[in-house]
Hints:
Layout: H1 2-7, E1 10-15, H2 18-26, E2 35-37, E3 49-50, H3 52-56, H4 65-71, E4 76-78, H5 82-97, E5 103-107, E6 110-114, H6 119-122, H7 125-140, E7 144-149, H8 152-161, E8 167-169, H9 175-179, H10 192-200, H11 206-210, H12 214-221, H13 223-232, E9 248-259, H14 262-282, E10 285-296, E11 301-312, H15 315-327, E12 335-347, H16 357-377, H17 385-388, H18 390-398, E13 412-417, E14 420-425
Parallel strand pairs: 2-4, 7-8
Antiparallel strand pairs: 1-6, 1-7, 2-3, 5-6, 9-12, 9-13, 10-11, 10-12, 13-14
The site of magnesium ion (MG) has 5 residues, from strand 1.
Amino acid sequence: MAKQARERRIIHVDMDAFYASVEQRDDPSLRGKPVIVGGKPNSRGVVSTASYEARKAGVHSAMPLAEAWRRCPQGIFLPVNGRKYREVSGQIRQIFLTYTPLVEPLSLDEAFLDVTASGAIFGPAASIGHIIKERIQDELGLTASVGVAGNKFLAKLASDLRKPDGFVVVPAEGVQDFLDPLPVERIWGVGQKTADRLHRLNVKTVRDLRRLELAHLKHLFGVLGGQLYELARGRDERPVESERETKSIGRETTFGADVGERDFLESVLLELACDVGRSLRKEKLKGRTITLKVRYADFHTLVRSRTLAEGTNLDDVIYSEACRLFQAIALKQPLRLIGVSVHQLANQEEGQLSLFADEREDQEHLARVIDKVREKYGAQSIVRARLLGPTDKKREATAPAVPGGPSQGRGLSGTEVNGRVQPAVRKGPGERGNGIPPGPE
Length: 441
Ligand SMILES: [Mg+2]
């Protein structure tokens, strides 16, 4: 076990105060100032990223914005510009991919790289790590902290040790010297509760932790105990998992209150289908299998699929197939969730032969034009009649009678990429534009 851990070379790159740094880079007037990315100070959200200047005032990520405002009234509060950060994240990723295909992003601003096999071309892991750090600085004007070690656990600890602008290499023979003085809280899986229990046993550092025998640790903490035993010795066998190919693209909505009206649900389906179609076209993908997922009020979940003769990325096709599947399902209870996804994906250039190629090309062309208009003027610039018609009345009719009561169509939804649904707070289909749910008049 220890042998393999010694052989692998893993780099962890973590951007410093990423969102805030991007904003400061792009607007020199923000440099040296306490920048707080997350939204308006009087809004209900939390801080996404605080610049180091704001951190000095006690602001940190995940803190309610109102609290950040109290601690740092001179702070410059900015909205989250997700599109920009994703774009920069993509540029950073391109730098990583120069050195290895084994890149595992943890978020927009950090990733693991396995450079074990890259040594023959690019030299030792430490110099690859150094070059990456320099390139991020030179080409993108941003600082990153970099850790280089024999596994993910150690590399992540290393990148965090001298933040910001840190660069720490843990040599194979120096693992224990590196780990021993660290507080146990630095070990993965040690939260406040576990830390408290360890402290009561007079275990404060990793060195202290190593005194506890495996059986004792397992007795105290179960599975986590075994993990602590290994990590305290710097052992971590988890591989760097590069993103697998996109297997499906999907979208789902969880309602704030369960919904039983077919009309309304079909209009939600249309919106979800349009979202999925847009994502597919953006990724230049087409899929052959359309899947509908519904979850009843009692959490019972049904999944139904249809496979087409050829792949599609057209909203109308996705919608009509999803609708057919939906119509075959009995609404024995109202739904708490509905979702559409498309599987069996391939590049859109593949499989162009079709009897109706011309007609389809026209439709695809139109879909791309609509996407562009929406990109430029906002998602609501072109709204289908189906989404405006009688269902709007339905929404009013089903809107909460009591202010603050449950409202339909509000809720969480998620985007599914790589077969995983990534939940994201999103306006439900009942809300349009201003974010105010339809209320009684
Ligand atoms: Mg970071």
